[in-house]
Amino acid sequence: MSLNKKAIVVFSGGQDSTTCLFWALENFHEVIAITFDYGQRHIDEIACAKEITSELNIKHHILDVNLINQLSANALTREDMEISAALDTELPSTYVEGRNHIFFSFAAIFAKQYGAKHIVTGVCETDFSGYPDCRDVFVKSLNVTLNLAMNYEFVIHTPLMWLNKEQTWEMADKLGKLKFIKEKTLTCYEGIRGDGCGICPSCVLRKRGFENYLQKKGKEKHDTTVLSTNKS
């Protein structure tokens, strides 16, 4: 069911944001993608986003927010920092302080200029890897703040908020884009497209979710076949 509105998709070219891009295309009559250049180590992320939007014939804008680099030391922008997962008392080294706060705020300013009230993002609390700015409470709080600050009725959509990676792959499959997302997106912290390096935290999460989904899909297919046979 289409919302018949214009939407801005915060787009990185990764699995989650690409799934959300296809979700937005199903739900809005016009979609514009916005990508942020924040000095990320792997500039191929931006190239990947460009290629995907070009192939899908979607308007795509890149905004320079390299200021983040001057304020936050993290493994996504500094090659001398090791990529590590979250520990019990520490955030992962890939956490960029305030990144989503800045991204969504700039996306809102951009959206208003284009007469769009809908902002779509792939943040997820279920598999959020310890990032506090991927939590539902943060998104809802910022949504209210942006509406008050700009006197404009934005709606920030988070289609993946309560989905794990297995369910995200399932959504991609239901959208008919499983192969596209598996082969053409860049999720790997080492900057390798598709299945990635297979070692970094992002790749491990992505691979495990994909394998779990294939197992689930295979089981459902098997159960359907057995049920059909028994009815016969």
Characterization of this structure:
The chain is built from eight helices and five strands, in the order E-H-E-H-E-H-H-E-H-E-H-H-H. It has helices spanning about 15-25, 45-55, 65-70, 100-115, 135-150, 165-175, 180-185, 200-230, and strands spanning about 5-10, 30-35, 60-65, 120, 155. It has a five-stranded parallel sheet with strand order 3-2-1-4-5, with helices on both faces. Strand 2, helix 2 (about 45-55) and strand 3 form a beta-alpha-beta unit. Helix 6 (about 165-175) crosses helix 8 (about 200-230). The chain is globular, with a radius of gyration of 18 Å.
Would you spell out the secondary-structure blueprint of this structure?
Layout: E1 6-10, H1 15-27, E2 30-37, H2 44-55, E3 59-64, H3 67-71, H4 99-113, E4 118-120, H5 136-150, E5 155-157, H6 165-174, H7 178-184, H8 201-231
Parallel strand pairs: 1-2, 1-4, 2-3, 4-5
**What would you report as the Rg, rounded to the nearest angstrom?**
18 Å
Compressed to H and E, one letter per element, the order equals EHEHEHHEHEHHH
Q: From the helix content, strand content and strand pairing, which structural class follows?
A: alpha/beta
Mean pLDDT: 86
Shape: globular
Provide a count of the helices: 8
Count all strands and give the number: 5
Strand content: 5-15%
Biggest beta sheet summary:
5 strands, parallel
